[in-house]
Design brief:
single chain; alpha+beta; nine-stranded antiparallel beta sheet; 6 helices; 9 strands; 27% helix; globular
Length: 215
């Protein structure tokens, strides 16, 4: 059952440490600190994150989406409201996010609740996108079965012809989501798999409890 070539793949992590006495009291502040280090490291697509959702009966699904902003309210991304993930988030707003920055030997796990972003936030971002991306968002019935790629290509051509001289507006089925964190875990790879794991858990008010987890 075990493929020895795969099983033998391993990396010993030695770049950094993560100490309770040195981290910020609030997870968003700690995330900002790590984020700045990620940006300075010039990693490719550092804002790529795994979004995990589940159906009402508990069937999970996960995919990569792109972080577009974060602040004290939470983590912002955009997608089709009528996609599989959109429907699952409407039925069950409990979601998780995962960042993995391999070059820095770091992960960040976020668990929380998701809400739709205000319409003006979605409008502002949609209008900042290239016209091709805007048309693509309108053309694609995301997650639905289609007969072939030509269905999309024909729809794009129709939309391009219909928007000559003016940019398309954001459709009602597309916009932003904000994940408000309830639990955030920072993971720093360490040698011999004895990784550093610090978990922030939201308690009453805006007080966060910091605990170390065994690797």
């Amino acid at each position: 059952m075990i493929n020895q070539k795969i099983a033998a793949l391993r990396q010993d992590y030695r770049l950094a440490t993560l100490n309770e006495r040195e981290v910020a009291a609030h997870p968003l502040q700690q995330f900002e600190h790590w984020w700045q280090e990620v940006i300075q490291s010039e990693l490719e697509e550092p804002n790529a994150m795994t979004l995990a959702t589940s159906s009402p009966d508990g069937k999970p699904s996960a995919r990569i989406v792109l972080l577009k902003s974060f602040n004290e309210q939470g983590f912002l991304f955009f997608t089709n409201y009528e996609s599989r993930k959109g429907k699952e988030m409407a039925a069950n707003p409990q979601v998780s996010l995962l960042f993995f920055w391999k070059e820095l030997e770091r992960q960040v796990r976020i668990e929380g609740t998701v809400i739709k972003a205000p319409a003006e936030v979605s409008d502002e971002y949609f209008n900042s996108r290239p016209v091709g991306s805007r048309i693509g968002a309108i053309a694609s019935p995301q997650s639905e079965v289609i007969a072939g790629r030509e269905v999309l290509e024909d729809r794009v051509r129709e939309l391009e012809a219909g928007h000559i001289g003016h940019a398309p507006q954001r459709p009602e089925h597309w916009g932003g989501y904000i994940v408000a964190p309830l639990e955030v875990e920072f993971w720093q790879g360490r040698s011999s798999r004895l990784h550093d794991r610090l978990r922030y858990t939201l308690e009453s008010g805006n007080i966060w409890k910091i605990e170390r987890l065994a690797p």
